[in-house]
Write a structure and sequence with these properties.
Order of helices and strands: HHEEHHHHHHEHHEHEEEHHEHEEHE
Strand content: 15-25%
Largest sheet: 4 strands, antiparallel
Strand order of the largest sheet: 4-3-6-5
Shape: elongated
Distance between the termini: 45 Å
Helix content: 40-55%
CATH architecture of the largest domain: Orthogonal Bundle
CATH class of the largest domain: Mainly Alpha
CATH superfamily of the largest domain: Porin chaperone SurA, peptide-binding domain
Number of helices: 15
Number of strands: 11
């Protein structure tokens, strides 16, 4: 089955589920084009609610499709009202570019994506309106607040000179989608869907449903950490996000990782950069079986430092213990991500190797600070702009909602 055929099949199956999940009053409404919600002088029809709910379920968006559809459409009416009040219009080229960009997340052209949606009962106009409101809002936010938050060259130079980016702390959530032999396409499709999430609650639901990480029980949430503890390749992606946005899928050993930025702040004192990270990996047969996990617990109880692992591994094959110091960019990403959560001499048993047959007993031995390397000015500038824009946008939307007349039928 080709990629397009698989996508069509997925859409058709999801469309059936959507129709089955519609509330009775929507499914049997005599006049789908009658107003269901009035937002100021704009109306939202039953047909629009039905179409948006169907599209959200095709996208496999977490949560109740009908409730999310109503919430999204009300917010979009507020956004469009504000854009019109400021004389902003979305040109045909901008709209087409927005539709192409969104379709590209599914590795499809806009025409392919629209045809797939139409085959599942979602009108082109429904998809177009969805993109139109998003593009209009981005234009409005940048036009209204952009001049207030421009980051100048002097700001970037001061940040670089003081290593300010090293003082940045991030609050992220994570999802690890396991990739099993023969199910690579399914895992990739799921990851692409999750990468389109834009709300913290939706990402948390996806983490509870699909993540293989130990954090799934708390919605994938990770505690505050300095940005420089993350692998270098991921730092750049995180810095380019606004709160609520999700990274593109990141392949790691045996899984696909996605990260959502929940919050970001500049610390009072810059955190050090590291020239090397020293760690030890002790490999235990059995993967995540009770016996292997019990062995890991006994090992943890018997040691205090990485040096103690030599005694644990004595008499075993040399390859069961790996220890060394590597540059941050040379460490495998899944190991680097686990090390980012650890302090010196702390242990993680979240990883496996050999297709899940070997448990990795991972211990952080230490980090070697260094003088900060030159950071990309563009990354710092983009990060500062996105954070401030998002803050203004969120506050502005709340203001619009509080001032609006919203009448639900």
């Amino acid at each position: 089955m080709t990629r397009i055929a698989r996508f069509f099949f997925s859409l058709m199956t999801a469309a059936t589920l959507t129709l089955a999940g519609l509330t009775p009053d929507m499914a049997t409404a005599q006049n789908l084009f009658a107003p269901a919600v009035k937002v100021n002088d704009k109306v939202i029809t039953h047909y629009e609610l039905q179409q948006r709910a169907r599209m959200l379920q095709l996208f496999r968006a977490p949560g109740n499709a009908n409730e999310e559809a109503r919430k999204q459409l009300i917010e979009e009416r507020l956004k469009l009202d504000a854009a019109e009040a400021h004389g902003l219009e979305v040109g045909a080229e901008d709209l087409e570019a927005g539709m192409e960009e969104f379709a590209g997340r599914a590795n499809m052209t806009n025409d392919q994506f629209v045809k797939a949606l139409e085959s599942a009962g979602v009108a082109r106009e429904t998809y177009r309106d969805f993109i139109h409101s998003g593009v209009a809002w981005r234009h409005l936010v940048r036009a209204k607040f952009g001049p207030r938050i421009q980051v100048g060259k002097a700001d970037v130079e001061r940040a670089l000179a003081s290593n300010a980016a090293s003082g940045v702390r991030v609050l992220i959530s994570e999802i690890y989608i396991p990739v099993k032999p023969g199910q690579e396409d399914r895992a990739e499709a799921r990851a692409n869907e999750i990468s389109q999430i834009t709300t913290i609650s939706a990402f948390a639901r996806a983490a509870r449903n699909y993540s293989a990480a130990p954090t799934r029980g708390r919605g994938g949430k990770v505690n505050w950490m300095p940005i420089n503890k993350l692998p270098p390749a991921i730092q750049g992606q995180i810095l380019g996000l606004a709160p609520g946005q999700v990274t593109k899928p990141i392949p790691i050993s045996g899984a696909i990782a996605l990260f959502q930025l929940r919050a970001i702040e500049e610390g009072k004192a810059p955190a050090p950069e590291y020239s090397a990270i020293e760690y030890a990996a002790y490999y235990i047969d059995g993967g995540r079986t009770p016996q292997a996990l019990a062995t890991a617990k006994k090992t943890r109880d018997r040691i205090d430092t990485c040096d103690d692992l030599y005694g644990i591994a004595k008499g075993q094959p040399e390859e069961v213990l790996e220890r060394g110091a590597k540059k941050p960019g040379e460490i495998p990403q899944d190991i680097a991500l686990e090390l980012a959560k650890l302090d010196k001499h702390e242990v993680s048993t979240n990883l496996t190797r050999a297709g899940g047959q070997t448990l990795v007993f991972l211990m952080l031995c230490g980090r070697t600070p260094k003088i900060a390397e030159e950071l990309e000015p563009g990354q710092i500038e983009l990060s500062l702009q996105n954070r401030r824009l998002q803050s203004f946008a969120d506050g502005y939307l709340e203001q619009l909602r509080s001032e609006a007349r919203i009448i639900e039928k």
